[in-house]
Amino acid sequence: MNFIGILYALMACACWATSFVVPLFIPDFNPVEVAVGRYFAYGLFSIPFFVPFLFKGMVPKSPKVWGFVFLFALTGNFLYYLLVVLGIRSIGASLVTILYASNPLIVSLWGNMKEKTYPVKLLIAPALMVLAGITILHLQDFEVDAALTWQNKLTGIVATFSAVTMWAWYSVFSARFVKRENLSVPLFNSLVGIVCLLITFFVGSFLHLSGISEMSFLTGELHSEVMTAFLVGMAILGLVTAMAGTFFWQHALKLIPTSIVGQLIVCEPLFGLLFSFLVIGRFPTLLEHTGASVVVFAVLYFIRSVRNYQQQQQELLT
User: Are the CB atoms for 252 and 5 separated by under 8 Å?
Assistant: First the structure.
């Protein structure tokens, strides 16, 4: 068991969890603006890292490689986030969070299917415990609006599972892509950031000019304090959430199997809850304590099961 890899995965989850807190400080901006600002900032911060690779001739020239980088930037970043937002708007945040709890199960099983590292039965039990823990965690604020039409429910469920599947694909195949193309993590991170910059520039400009979604930060109608909060928030989301999160995540995938990293994804909402409690200034309720405890137990149970399995395999070889 590579505990450095586990530490990288936990650091990635902590970085991603800042996305739960930053929107609390910029309520004047809609989710599309936040998504555009987040990945535009990610792209800007990637430029200083990208330029040295460019001058050293280390940037891939293959159209196939750039095609995959575009897919990773689109699926694992921008489009994924928009689908999550669509799900929240359609069926509510609590139900989306519970459906999203299937993410560790999907990533673990999908990654294990490709890598064939552990028996499937080793992965299912802790993943189901994670699902139960997340459900308990959000049970007190769980409600489905009676006014929701079947179209809303269908749209929300499809959008959420599409986002989960999309991110699971990104997690599994980006790791294989980095190894296959022999790319360093900083190079891959900067490539994805540059493509995110281009995507958000064109998407943001199109949405604003077409009137589909007004980018209020481009109109200059907001007070300077509001704009300052937005710029600081986007800097945090771009540098910490997107850039540092991707950096730690790819390092984790290089050190430990995807099936293990997948189980650790559940720590992202736990960090998000912790950060939110610190910002709001309240203690978790009994249900929240119970749900979080079940999730932590599931992760520790899984790590212990993996260690026992590895020891058994070593004993068989000797």
Answer: yes
Give me the residue label for tokens 């990945």.
Answer: 39
d(CA 270, CA 276): 10
Residue in 270, 249, 246, 266 with CA at minimum distance from that of residue 258: 249
Decide: 107 and 171 in contact? Cβ < 8 Å: yes
Residue pair 171/115 in contact by the 8 Å Cβ criterion: no
pTM confidence score: 0.80
Residue 250 to residues 49, 66, 288, 293: CA-CA distances in angstroms? 16, 18, 30, 27
Q: Does residue 123 contact residue 108 with C-beta atoms inside 8 Å?
A: yes
- Mind listing the pLDDT tens digit for each residue in 175-231? 889 888 988 989 999 999 999 999 998 888 887 777 666 666 666 666 678 888 888
* Type of residue found at 229: A
Q: Are 186 and 250 in contact (CB under 8 A)?
A: no
Distance CA 258, CA 254 (A): 9
